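Figure 6 in text form: structure in, sequence out.
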């Protein structure tokens, strides 16, 4: 090799790390669309975990990363409006939470990369082709398997065996709600309970249907994992206490805030994993090539103070399985 060619080769090789660093240093834009109010403490905890992991991976807000947030305003078509606003900003990738948000985004763009979290059934919803090969502009992390609905009913009967009527608080217009309710229906007869669909699309529907349902005897509740129940979790917990209704919840934080018992996946950890996917997309990988992953960590939490208030005795077999006991 001639000397001039050798020097040129050395120069181009030395430039590679500089080019890579420049790729990271230039400002990137990430959109975040949440179906919760900005004041929702759980939403803030999830975003904090997301940002913390991004920072660990080398992405710092206002240095090489700009984040555009959109929250639920409570107005009609809030998700659709927010989706259009974010897509108009031409972000490099969007973090999307929950099925209704994904519906709005998919109606708005098929090109902007999307990483979703808290989506129950992305294949049936048409967001991806398959879990292993998403095949489009979206990938992410599912939050729940429909079969868990049977476990919620089992837990409710285990902690309150006298129950014969169970109300299920759901949003009938959300795909995940239909799937979870169907799983509960499939085992209801074997547990000797009659199911009643409760809830609707807003807080007033929850309060009205739960209050009417509570007029009967031997009643309990199951709360499904949908944005409606998450946004109104304080109301649901207070209704369960007011009407003395043993209730199972999908996530731990319902129980730390006064609910009776919960079984479900960790709600914070997926946002750390989502940051990893955002990082990989910002570095050139495509959502179509990143497999959709399911929850790996489940938590069983029991509030013993609430159980005592309801005059319930929690069996030792259930106590021994709990990952957290709140006294």
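Output sequence:
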């Amino acid at each position: 090799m001639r000397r001039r060619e050798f020097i040129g080769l050395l120069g181009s090789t030395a430039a590679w790390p500089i080019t890579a660093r420049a790729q990271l240093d230039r400002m990137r834009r990430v959109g975040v669309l949440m179906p919760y109010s900005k004041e929702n403490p759980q939403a803030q905890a999830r975003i904090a975990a997301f940002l913390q992991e991004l920072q660990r991976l080398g992405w710092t807000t206002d240095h090489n990363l700009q984040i555009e947030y959109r929250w639920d305003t409570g107005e009609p078509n809030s998700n659709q409006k927010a989706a259009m606003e974010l897509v108009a900003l031409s972000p490099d990738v969007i973090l999307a939470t929950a099925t209704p948000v994904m519906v709005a985004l998919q109606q708005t763009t098929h090109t902007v990369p999307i990483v979703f979290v808290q989506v129950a059934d992305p294949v049936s919803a048409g967001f991806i082709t398959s879990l292993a090969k998403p095949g489009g502009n979206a990938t992410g992390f599912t939050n729940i398997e429909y079969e868990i609905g049977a476990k919620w009913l089992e837990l409710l009967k285990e902690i309150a065996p006298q129950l014969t009527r169970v109300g299920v608080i759901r949003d009938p217009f959300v795909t995940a709600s239909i799937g979870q309710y169907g799983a509960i229906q499939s085992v209801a007869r074997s547990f000797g309970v009659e199911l009643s669909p409760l809830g609707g699309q807003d807080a007033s529907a929850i309060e009205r249907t739960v209050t009417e349902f509570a007029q009967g005897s031997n009643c309990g509740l199951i709360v499904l994992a949908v944005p409606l129940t998450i946004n109104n979790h304080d109301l649901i917990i207070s209704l369960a206490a007011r009407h003395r209704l043993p209730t199972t919840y999908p996530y731990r934080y319902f129980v730390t805030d006064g609910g009776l018992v919960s079984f479900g996946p960790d709600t914070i950890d997926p946002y750390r994993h989502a940051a990893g996917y955002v990082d990989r997309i910002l570095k050139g990988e495509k959502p179509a090539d990143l497999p959709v992953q399911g929850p790996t960590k489940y938590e069983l939490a029991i509030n013993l103070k609430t159980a005592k208030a309801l005059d319930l005795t929690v069996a030792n077999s259930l106590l021994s399985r709990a990952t957290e006991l709140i006294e």
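Caption detail: The mean pLDDT is 91.
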